[in-house]
Amino acid sequence: MATIRLYPSGREVPCPEGSTVLAALEAEGWALPNNCRAGTCGECKVKVRQGEFDQGFVLDMALSPAERAEGYGAMCMAKPLSDVLEIEWGTIDARPLLFPPRRDVPFTLVDAIERTPAITELVLRPDEEPLRYWPGQYVHLGNPPDAPRRAYSIANAPRADGELHFFVTRERFGRTSAWLLDRRPGDELRLDGPYGAFIGDPSIATPVVCLAAGSGLAPILALTDAALRRGFAHPVTLVLSARTEADVYPRGLLAHLERRYGNFHFVRTLTRDEGPPPRGRIPAILADLVGTLAGVAVFIAGPEAFVEDTRRACLALGADPSSLYREPYVPQDDLGSLSVLGPW
């Protein structure tokens, strides 16, 4: 078994034979930012200071030849070849932040609620010990080989009874979404997780703006609900981009949060309807909605193109790159996933 050493903290993590560095870190609860888990995005890229490793297949757009020559590696695909692999991590203490993922955890579907013409909310309850996770994380759901496991963000803050909520979009050619939406109350589903590092930090003490599109609302909603419940006192603005009024969800919960918490404000913008303003895509109308983003923590979740366009708009409005956190939903392979570290 190899050892992963974190620099400069000196902490060590065991890496079983055949495991990637990312999987070994997650198994021990260490929150290395990651996104695609397939060598396509470069989010888990770190510098290797010592040791040898098999990089596996990684696109040049994620890890350039120059970066490879400088000793960088994509940890989602990297497997140690030497006894010790020392990686450079930008933290002094590298405190454990994550709960180790569990495999094949049994849940029972207790409800399926149509939230929009395209999105259904699935409610699952654990058949055994509740899953421990941080708001903003995701799990893998599916039934291989017919329905390959896909990443679905948990849409609710942790509950004492362990109930989990998911927003599932029926994709035109999506085998997994079709399989999930064909389940009926009482059916058993098994999941792996939790995964991801789009998680919270109670020390944040600035206003927060959350920007979501489609089912990207799930991790945003979990983070927002958890923060407000624990007494987060700074202003929280959540903006949801939807095509039509029928695509705005979940109205009841969002209205409840506005009534209960005076510091929470929800805004929806429509991209295809002629309903009441605001209308238009978030990147185009963001200045009118929020003004400056200097001194504001910003969370963005949704399709990859939406996240990137919105990120650029936020930077143009003065957002500090270190206070801008993203959860891009990228095309998934059999174990696709999504997550970029956040502070809230």
Topology record:
Layout: E1 2-7, E2 12-15, H1 21-27, E3 45-50, E4 53-54, H2 65-69, E5 72-74, E6 79-80, E7 84-88, E8 102-114, E9 119-126, E10 138-143, E11 147-153, E12 164-169, H3 175-181, E13 188-195, E14 208-213, H4 217-229, E15 236-242, H5 251-260, E16 264-270, H6 282-290, E17 297-303, H7 304-316, E18 324-329
Parallel strand pairs: 1-7, 14-15, 14-17, 15-16, 17-18
Antiparallel strand pairs: 1-2, 3-5, 3-7, 4-6, 8-9, 8-13, 9-12, 10-11, 10-13
Helix pairs in contact: 6-7
Domain FAD-binding FR-type: 102-201
Keywords: 2Fe-2S, Iron, Iron-sulfur, Metal-binding
Domain 2Fe-2S ferredoxin-type: 2-95
Question: How does this structure look, described?
Answer:
With 344 residues, this protein is an alpha/beta fold. It has three domains: 87 residues, Roll (Ubiquitin-like (UB roll)); 92 residues, Elongation Factor Tu (Ef-tu), domain 3, CATH 2.40.30.10; 122 residues, Rossmann fold (3-Layer(aba) Sandwich), CATH 3.40.50.80. Helices cover 19% and strands 32% of the residues. The chain has seven helices and 18 strands. The chain has a six-stranded antiparallel sheet with strand order 11-10-13-8-9-12. A five-stranded mixed sheet has the order 2-1-7-3-5. Strand 1 and strand 2 form a beta hairpin. Helix 6 runs parallel beside helix 7. The C terminus is likely disordered.
